[in-house]
Design goal:
Blueprint lengths: L5 H11 L6 H13 L2 H17 L1 E2 L6 E2 L5 H4 L4 E8 L2 H8 L6 E5 L17 H10 L4 E4 L5 H14 L5 E4 L15 H9 L2 E2 L1
Helix pairs in contact: 1-2
């Protein structure tokens, strides 16, 4: 005998597929949605559909955007000679909250991880190198996550940039080793930007 109705079970199963959402949290979320109004449920469903239908990648930096180029790439108020390289769009959000950086971004969409079958060709590294070659870039800031994969990715990119006549820096220590930028607080990220160093 089934205790939970099939639509509720299906909702729990779908929520359980989300990262960091286990079965108990998925159940709590499902019952929260069930207790809420139909309008709230429709608003949530519409928000999910909107991000799938309206969000694209910027053709310059590969960040998520509604328009191409994105607001950062289109801005005349940014420092156009700097590119900060990050792994994921969430890292851009974390860095922007510090108000310490006013240059451009380049989102790799991951990191090199041979064990998971992710090679440099699977990331937006070639596109980064093309940007550096074609634009008047003076500094590339490698802001990959301070873990094994992030460091390996930064080292690989550094080797590719060596002969392009650009200064390559990395964020200062103080970010936790093995952590992700998106979870770092604004003060830590701000200090990391101020103390960045040449590689």
């Amino acid at each position: 005998m089934r205790i939970t109705a099939e639509p509720v079970t299906r909702l729990i199963d779908e929520l359980n597929k989300l990262p960091t959402i286990g079965p108990k949290t998925a159940s709590r979320l499902a019952f929260y949605i069930l207790r809420g109004s139909k309008d709230d449920a429709l608003a949530l469903a519409q928000a999910i559909l909107d991000v799938k239908e309206k969000i694209i990648y910027c053709s310059t930096c590969y960040n998520l955007t509604e328009s191409d180029p994105c607001a950062v790439c289109a801005s005349k108020d940014r420092e156009l000679s700097q590119i900060c390289v990050v792994e994921e769009p969430l890292d851009v959000v974390a860095i922007e909250k510090t108000h310490e950086y006013n240059g451009l971004y380049h989102v790799l969409h991951g990191h090199i991880d041979p064990l998971a079958g992710i090679s440099p060709d699977d990331l937006k590294i070639r596109e980064l190198l093309d940007r550096v070659r074609l634009a008047d870039i003076k500094e590339v800031i490698l802001a990959t996550n301070p873990n094994v994969e992030g460091r390996a990715t930064a080292n690989y990119i550094h080797r590719q940039l060596v002969n392009l006549g650009v200064s390559v820096t990395t964020l200062a220590t103080g970010l936790p080793v093995g952590g992700d930028l998106e979870y770092a607080d604004e003060v830590t990220l701000s200090n990391a930007f101020k103390g960045r160093r040449n590689i």
